[in-house]
Protein backbone atom coordinates (compact mmCIF):
# COMPACT_ATOMS: atom_id res chain seq x y z
CA UNK A 1 0.00 0.00 0.00
CA UNK A 2 1.53 3.28 -1.06
CA UNK A 3 1.23 6.75 0.44
CA UNK A 4 -1.49 7.83 -2.01
CA UNK A 5 -3.74 4.93 -0.95
CA UNK A 6 -3.15 5.68 2.73
CA UNK A 7 -4.08 9.33 2.26
CA UNK A 8 -7.17 8.34 0.27
CA UNK A 9 -8.25 5.90 2.98
CA UNK A 10 -7.51 8.40 5.74
CA UNK A 11 -9.71 11.02 4.13
CA UNK A 12 -12.58 8.55 3.91
CA UNK A 13 -12.21 7.57 7.57
CA UNK A 14 -12.25 11.25 8.54
CA UNK A 15 -15.38 11.71 6.40
CA UNK A 16 -16.98 8.73 8.14
CA UNK A 17 -16.17 10.26 11.52
CA UNK A 18 -17.79 13.54 10.44
CA UNK A 19 -20.84 11.61 9.22
CA UNK A 20 -21.17 9.96 12.63
CA UNK A 21 -20.95 13.31 14.43
CA UNK A 22 -23.43 14.89 12.01
CA UNK A 23 -25.98 12.11 12.47
CA UNK A 24 -25.60 12.27 16.26
CA UNK A 25 -26.04 16.05 16.15
CA UNK A 26 -29.22 15.71 14.09
CA UNK A 27 -30.61 13.04 16.42
CA UNK A 28 -29.83 15.10 19.52
CA UNK A 29 -31.40 18.18 17.92
CA UNK A 30 -34.58 16.42 16.86
CA UNK A 31 -35.07 13.98 19.73
CA UNK A 32 -33.04 15.40 22.55
CA UNK A 33 -30.77 13.41 24.78
CA UNK A 34 -30.73 9.71 24.03
CA UNK A 35 -28.97 7.05 26.04
CA UNK A 36 -25.47 5.79 25.55
CA UNK A 37 -26.60 2.49 24.02
CA UNK A 38 -28.77 4.26 21.45
CA UNK A 39 -25.87 6.53 20.49
CA UNK A 40 -23.57 3.52 20.23
CA UNK A 41 -26.11 1.82 17.98
CA UNK A 42 -26.28 4.91 15.77
CA UNK A 43 -22.48 4.99 15.51
CA UNK A 44 -22.36 1.31 14.53
CA UNK A 45 -25.10 1.74 11.91
CA UNK A 46 -23.49 4.81 10.33
CA UNK A 47 -20.03 3.22 10.33
CA UNK A 48 -21.36 0.00 8.80
CA UNK A 49 -23.42 1.83 6.17
CA UNK A 50 -20.68 4.24 5.10
CA UNK A 51 -18.64 1.85 2.97
CA UNK A 52 -21.55 0.41 0.92
CA UNK A 53 -23.02 3.88 0.39
CA UNK A 54 -19.68 5.28 -0.79
CA UNK A 55 -19.15 2.30 -3.11
CA UNK A 56 -22.63 2.70 -4.60
CA UNK A 57 -21.98 6.40 -5.17
CA UNK A 58 -18.81 5.49 -7.02
CA UNK A 59 -16.47 7.53 -4.82
CA UNK A 60 -14.89 4.70 -2.84
CA UNK A 61 -11.10 4.61 -2.54
CA UNK A 62 -9.28 2.13 -4.75
CA UNK A 63 -8.37 -0.02 -1.74
CA UNK A 64 -12.10 -0.71 -1.13
CA UNK A 65 -12.76 -1.77 -4.71
CA UNK A 66 -12.56 -5.52 -4.54
Summarize the entry for a quick read.
The protein is mainly alpha-helical and 66 residues long. The chain has helices at residues 3-31, 36-57.
What's the helical proportion of residues? over 70%
Distance between the termini: 14 Å
What's the alpha carbon Rg, rounded to whole Å? Answer: 14 Å
- Separate helix tally: 2
Order of helices and strands: HH
The proportion of residues in beta strands is under 5%
Explain how this protein is built.
This protein is an all-alpha fold. The chain has one domain (about 5-60). About 75% of the residues lie in helices and about 0% in strands. It has two helices and no strands. It is elongated and about 45 Å long. About 0% of the residues are buried.
